[in-house]
Amino acid sequence: MCRHLAYLGPPRTLAVLLLEPEHGLLAQSYAPADMRGGGTINADGFGAGWYPASGADPVRVRSAKPLWADTSFAALAGATSSGAVLGAVRSATVGMPVVETAAAPFTDGRWLFSHNGVVRGWPGSLASAAAAVPVTDLLTLDAPTDSAALWALVRARLRAGDDPAEVLATTCERVERDAPGSRLNLLLTDGSTVWATAWWHALAVRTGGDHTTVASEPTHAFPDWIPVPDRHLVVARPGGHDLHPI
Ligand code: GLN
To answer: How many domains does the chain have?
Structure first.
């Protein structure tokens, strides 16, 4: 299973947010602490998306390399600041390809999206839900993976103007119905709000007066990380977050 993180707050470099914390995404790529039986390390690629100060749509970089092996990203991360960042490291599910385009975040306009988990019985189990997605979207999936297919389901509803919290919660319910036992930690941001689900996998949130971080695993030993209970949705903004049962 992968690990992911979203941050909203005062601008920080990607290095400060993702690479330097004692248990940041870099550490979680080679020494994750709470994988719950879903793989051992997250070496099958990584990605980061961030919102530039200009207000433009997010910039996204991805790679099929382990995060620790990409010196170009380390250099970029030290020189790039943002107040809204989503990062992910990937552990490919057996049978799914290790390619750059399978790494999160997936993006569309203002949106950045990541999935940490697995859809049981994919692809057949998703076929019924995917019938509601435009065929062109299915023909142009980023990669033949469960996560890219989940993004197509979510993106179609976001494009239709549906409420993001509702979209994530009902996507979990629908996929669980069709693919019982799936792990569906979904993470979505538009640069102002973070929506995330905990569905049979680790998730924690830490919010202060001017910042919030939602992450698979706490990045520091601060005491104010709150574990997100299973089958809950967290809606987080700098200064506050809410937890809702799904
Ligand atoms: N199952 C997905 C993939 O292989 C998600 C990554 C993960 O959480 N292992 O791409």
So the answer is: 1
In a domain, 136, yes or no: no
Tens digits of per-residue pLDDT, 157-201? 999 999 999 999 999 999 999 999 999 999 999 999 999 999 998
7-26 per-position pLDDT tens digit: 999 999 999 999 999 989 99
Cβ contact 196:164 at 8 Å? no
Q: Is 155 in the pocket of ligand 1 (CB under 6 A)?
A: no
DSSP 93: P
CB 126 less than 6 A from any atom of ligand 1: no
User: Residue 190's domain is classified under what CATH number?
Assistant: 3.60.20.10
Q: Which residue's CA lies nearest to atom 1 of ligand 1?
A: 118
Q: Does the predicted TM-score (pTM) go above 0.85?
A: yes
Structure tokens at 104: 């999160």
Which of the residues are catalytic? Answer: 2
In a domain, 83, yes or no: yes
The range of the structural domain enclosing residue 97 comes to: 3-116+186-245
Beta carbon of 115 within 6 Å of any ligand 1 atom? yes
- DSSP label at 217? S
